[in-house]
Amino acid sequence: MKASNEHHERIAKMTFASVYPHYLNKVESKGRTKDELIEVIEWLTGFDEQKIQAFILEKVTFETFFQQAQINPNASLIKGVICGYRIEEIENTLTKQVRYLDKLVDELAKGKKMEKILRSA
After folding, report:
1. Is residue 91 part of a domain?
2. CA distances, 78 to each of 63, 69, 81, 97, 119 (Å)
3. Predicted structure pTM score
4. Is residue 98 in some structural domain?
5. What is the pLDDT of residue 5?
6. Is residue 94 one of the residues assigned to a domain?
7. Quick check: is 32 in a domain?
8. Taking all residues of the chain, what is their mean pLDDT, rounded to a whole number?
9. Which among 121, 91, 109, 102 is positioned nearest to 41, based on CA atoms?
10. Backbone phi, then psi, for 109, in 5-degree steps?
11. Total domains in the fold of the chain
12. Which end of the chain offers a freer environment for a tag, N or C, measured as fewer CB atoms within 10 Å?
């Protein structure tokens, strides 16, 4: 499935604050914690909880969020399909990074062990 430029632009302009509550609801409804969600986001981006909260308050876009991130070197190990797109085939860097985050949240909600989610085992 090939994403359009409009799709990439829509993702870039979405605010992290608008999506974060959905991530939190998804993981908590499956018995995971906010701390685990923060750990996953921090692993991918390098942002601690304080920085994540600042981004939420500032209503930064995903574009700004990921421009400031230090993407984990092991992020390229995140593979599979999320939202109908195979992550390894996404060419747009920002869209790929957002889908990395979506996939990690999905894995957390599905009950995967943290070592597997963080690609350390």
Report:
1. yes
2. 20, 17, 10, 10, 8
3. 0.92
4. yes
5. 81
6. yes
7. yes
8. 94
9. 102
10. -65, -30
11. 1
12. C
CATH number at residue 96: 1.10.8.290
Domain that holds residue 79: 5-116
Residue 49 structure tokens: 């909880």
CB 39 within 8 A of CB 52: no
Reading the block at residue 89, the tokens are 């085939």
Cβ density class 44-66: b for 16+ within 10 Å, e for less: bbebeeebbeebbeeebbbbebb
DSSP lists the bridge partners of residue 41 as none
pLDDT in tens, 71-106: 999 999 999 998 888 999 999 999 999 999 999 999
Answer for the pair 40, 117: CB distance below 8 angstroms, yes or no: yes
Residue in the block written with tokens 């876009």: 61
What would the two tokens of residue 118 be?
């963080």
Would the CA dihedral through 27, 33, 37, 39 be positive or negative?
negative
